[in-house]
Structure prediction request, 397 residues.
Amino acid sequence: MLYPLDPIYVCERCFGPLEVVYDYEALAAQPLRSVFASGPRSIWRYEPLLPVDRIAEIDLQPGWSPLVHSQRLGRALGLRQLYIKNDSVNPTWSFKDRVVGVAIAAARRFGFEVVACASTGNLAHAVAAHAARAGLRACVFIPKGLERGKVVATAAYGPTIVEVEGNYDEVNRLCAEIAEEHRWAFVNVNLRPYYSEGGKTLGFEVAEQLGWRAPDHVVVPVASGSLLVKIHKGLQELQRTGVIPDLRTRVHGAQAAGCAPVAAAFAEGREEIHPVKPNTIARSLAIGAPADGRYVLRLARDTGGRVLAVTDEEIVEGIRLLAETEGIFTETAGGVTIGVLRALAGQDAFAPDDVVVAYVTGIGLKTLEAVETRLTPPITIRPALREFERAVLELVG
Ligand SMILES: Cc1ncc(COP(=O)(O)O)c(C=O)c1O
Prediction:
């Protein structure tokens, strides 16, 4: 059933989530590659495949982050064509700026005055920043006990921050109830169809940066599952409109073992997702009842991908491995991606010349507590050459 572009998110008939559709035939008739190339270096270069138009005066210019050919990490994993999509390079240092950029433009279009969200941390940060730029009031809901870096960084933009005594799934349920009663723009509830479309730009951009082709594999962190599903939708749209010739990308999902409802269903060959109570250092991925979990499962199976989980120990190892080999310091979600990338390599999921793209979706500075006790602390010396020679020289080698 088709609906107009309104702030609605469920079908009245089947209660399923609503998806934005485009006139793909008309789009295929356009020279899309050059349309994109003439656009700004941000998510808005893909405006023809986004559900709302850019509003220049509120745009924080998310997107167009580096795609890094990662040769040192690749060598460690037996991959010649490994790329890290470093999406910590964004206005609030996570991929959430992409989805929020689209949602805020939608909120403005629909005339909302308050924007809100249920968040595991990064989304709250992005909503607060984009709302500030748009001159909208923001009220963000987070579970109690998130990392200090995320809460303090969010507070800087002056939103109302509501810490709920419960986990993310309880926060999300509360927000759905509020959205029923009050005319607020909850970016990931009543504006979810718009918000989630922003995730497609991580598929578009990678294909463009690879010279308009789809990678052989993508490895994507999974919380609600929206990002993974939308990366694939983005690639599919490029193929459908003739921008890329074919699509054989295997889609792999990455979860933390302490919150792995989708990986468990994948391992056990189940169709349904059994919700879990999260217990992991990867708080940004701590969603026990993922809204798009079933779609993630189906996509991984249909494309020949896998959904794996890694322990907290492996997450920290992943963060260190990426930092030490590629100079990219990611948050715990990125540690999950790298941990699963490594596990997939260990399972021979890749051929040595496959083009593999691992999505690093947030910065390490916001989750310092996850790693700080596990890294080598600084050496303290007095300001004297002899001290340096005694205490430091041998260590550096
Ligand atoms: C850094 C980071 N990466 C990945 C995700 C997963 O996003 P999704 O809920 O779309 O699966 C999140 C979600 O909060 C996140 O903060």
About this structure: The mean pLDDT is 97. The longest strand covers residues 137-143. The CA atoms of residues 33 and 243 lie 6 Å apart.
